[in-house]
Amino acid sequence: MTDLFSPFTLRGVTLKSRIGVAPMCQYSAKPDGIPTDWHLAHLVSRAVGGAGVTIAEATAVTPEGRISPGDLGIWSDDHIAPHARLAAAIAAVGSVPGIQIAHAGRKASRNAPWLHGPADPSWTCVAPSAEAFGDFAVPQAMTEAQVAATIADFVAAAQRAVRAGYRFIEIHAAHGYLMHQFLSPLSNRRNDGWGGDFDGRTRFVTETVAAVRAAIPGDMPLAIRVSHTDWVEGGWTTEETVELARRVKALGIDLVDVSSGGNDPRQKITLVPGYQVPGAAAVRAAGVPVAAVGLITEPEHAQSILSEGKADLIFLARELLRDPYWPLHAAATLGRTEALAIPPQYDRAWGTYGKVHMDLAIAAPQPAL
């Protein structure tokens, strides 16, 4: 039986548990996309909580590809050093540092969600077609030269992520952002080689995956996040996701992070615990390792998803915003106290649960400067 606290190896990287911190936008970067102390506190606190992999939020490969002015960026070499600070801090507390590289497409140039509306000042968005998302601004349809340039932007971003010390890279092709826009016939109305049939609509994703895989070290895990369905008639489907998963696996993808929706405001979703797990199970049945997400809040539920062979990893988002120490609490709930890796600084609070210490580079007293 696959255990929630058993290691999981992807290429040359081993996660200490099957629990991951899903990428969650914080809208708290500096205007030039530079991480702030908020990102350091947010990510490291969840890494300390016991996650096997901790993935930084959707990080834009171009300035125009940001969802908001507060999004992280990795479009220039100026971003490498501040990202290296994040990656090193995550690794120091025993979690694998990961990053999601992304382009928002027609869903770019927005304010932080608690402010609503378009960014001010706003910028011109690009997309596969001049099709707006709901009442958002109408984007410019990308030229073929812009498509090729954006693939190169993803490659350059991935190479910077490697230089920054990240050990896990995820390509964002879900939630209605640029890659998902290419995949779905609801947003891709092109009649050239980047649209039309399944091969055309998936070409941007497959060519980007192949180019990124060729540009990063062979021992570096490469994942992709997908929305397995648009939840709208005539949109992207689970069956298409399964076929895409087969193709990107052959191109070097090691894990498919299976979510859903986000590409059309007309979507109708019934929200129940684990509502996206069937999509993950369908992809895994095709022979591709997967991460499951979606209203997974109880340790017993997370364990059952793994035990029943529906996923290989569990990625948590909102639940980890509520409880950064969910993995530690889950280990106690499931009677796996020997799996707890407690920072020695926290012994006074967790000592009754177990005495397995993290191997922390920061645990020893530091010499005075």
The main sheet orders its strands as 3-4-5-8-9-10-11-12
pLDDT < 50 stretches: 363-369
Termini Cα gap: 50 Å
In sequence order, what are the helices and strands, one letter per element? EEEHEHEEEHEHHEHEHEHEHHH
Helix percentage: 25-40%
Count up the helices: 11
Proportion of residues in extended strands: 5-15%
* pLDDT averaged over residues: 93
Q: What kind of sheet is the major sheet?
A: 8 strands, parallel, barrel
> What is the strand tally?
12
Oligomer: single chain
Rg, Cα atoms, Å: 20 Å
Structural class: alpha/beta
3D shape: globular
Describe this entry's structure for a reader.
With 369 residues, the chain is an alpha/beta fold. 32% of the residues lie in helices and 14% in strands. It has an 8-stranded parallel barrel with strand order 3-4-5-8-9-10-11-12, surrounded by 7 helices. Residues 363-369 have low confidence and may be disordered.
Question: How would you concisely characterize the structure shown here?
Answer:
The protein is α/β, with parallel strands linked by helices and 369 residues long.
